[in-house]
Amino acid sequence: MAKKKKKKIKAGFEISLETTPFHVLFFAAYPLILLYMVNAKEMYAYLLIKPMFISILAASALYCAVLFMVKNALKAGFMTSVFIIWFFTYGHLYRSLEAPLKLTNHFVLFPMTMALAGAVIAFVARLRIKNTQTPEKINLILNYVAIGLVLFVTAAAILRMPEQGKIEPVKQLTETAAPSSADEKYPDIYYIIMDGHARSDYMKKTFNYDDSVFIDKMRSMGFYIPAKAKANYPETLLSFASFLNCDYLDKLIKLDPASDDRVVVKDQIKKKSALGYLKDKGYTVIIFPSINVTNAMKAGADYIMTPAALTFGEFEYMIFSTSVISAVSGFFHEGEPPAYQARRESIRYDFKYIPETAKMGSPKVVFAHIVCPHPPFVFDAQGGAVINTKPINFADGDHSDFSTEEYVEKYGAQARFIDDMTVKMVENLMKNMKKNSIIIIHGDHGSGSHLNWEDYTKTDFGERLSIFSAYYLPGGGDKLLYPGISPVNNFRLIQKFYFGEKINLLPDKSYFSKWDKPYDFIDVTKYTQ
Ligand SMILES: [Zn+2]
Questions:
Q1: Distance of alpha carbon 66 from alpha carbon 70, whole angstroms
Q2: How close is the Cα of 218 to the center of ligand 1, in Å?
Q3: Dist. CA 270 → ligand 1 center (Å)
Q4: Is the distance from CB of 277 to CB of 173 less than 8 angstroms?
Q5: For residue 46, what pLDDT is reported?
Q6: Is residue 491 part of a domain?
Q7: Distance from the CA of 244 to the center of ligand 1, in angstroms?
Q8: Residue 419: which domain range?
Q9: pTM for the whole structure
Q10: Which H or E run contains 324?
Q11: pLDDT per residue over 452-469, tens digit each?
Q12: Residue-by-residue DSSP string for 264-308
């Protein structure tokens, strides 16, 4: 039966499910498709292409090398697949055993699993094969299992992919954009998000951090610091989509309160938005992206400012942190996955190079997303490294890796450092920038020490929706400011005052929604007063 299916290519060389270890390729693809499947609602499918290509290429190369050594296709295939499975499952295994076995580093699990995988590989390598029936049967089973897994997880991924068009864009800001006029003197705009930066009153009462030195310093440099600044939305994506498009989300897109499809919100960030408006006016768009959110904005940028390590995107980091790479790198950094070093490097890079952009041609808009003091916490109050050993997790509140007590302690410390860095950055920026430049710095939402994404009663709405904001608006623009301003009005204010657009500011509202129902909003404005 089986013999008939075989296709003879050349004498002694044939391709069939029994005799060819296709499973090597499928086992190399499976973990990546699985990772995509889990995150399908928050990432674009094309991001899978590059890591998939690299993984399959590396697996093929490894297979060829092993084949060269053992001179047996079935053996080489089996040995390669054992290695691939170990490589991709180690991070998951570590994470699932971490709590029950109270693991704090890789010094036990890593050598144990490596020895186990190595023993299996060595055993197979030394095996003398007398008849080929059993190896062929094993190869056939491995092929079926690997192909089955890939088919299953691919189908699941397709089912989870967001339905495009379920929520349709109904309005675009740029419809009102006026034609460009090169003669006008427009101000440079520096727009900096300090992700999750809490307001002064919450810094004090929640984190026991009196930030008055920082606030006074900012005021002395000419900033207006609204005492009751509030966010419009409790999470990054929603907040960005709203302030970049100068409106509340329910005015921008048709919202389905039952949906948790976040790709439609990412599409709002990808749109031309306020930055597109400025680009139409002749502005150069310079972006300091974050690895998670503002990647979506890269398409509209003229310059993307990022340290080399961050050419690896978010998805690659997820692959790293769930594979053997997390352990290998961990040995060199006290058990810390590489994504944390990249996080520190990225934050320091932004603070250093944002002032440098002042030297670039005008008019320009510099948009920076600094994912700090938001968790994970990687800096102490002096900027020293705080070591984390879990795979990196950018989730906030009860979805973060920190208990309330840890959060309160570590957020407060990280915020102190970030505030010091902010003062230095602004001082450097002001040395170089044009006199009529605008600087806006704000949190996209507040902190999340008392944030439960599933339970309103365990959430401090005031903490989550009260934000730090700082406005440097020369030429009289600051006259439009007031204590309770929210980000939805930031680009409206710029367009109204500096571009003479007939556009009004909106009422400042704060909304909360649960993680699983991001569009099922409740109005929590009163908690931010
Ligand atoms: Zn955020």
A1: 6
A2: 22
A3: 17
A4: yes
A5: 78
A6: yes
A7: 14
A8: 173-439+473-528
A9: 0.71
A10: none
A11: 999 999 999 999 999 999
A12: HHHHHHHS-HHHHHHHHTTPEEEEE--SSSGGGGGGG-SEE---G
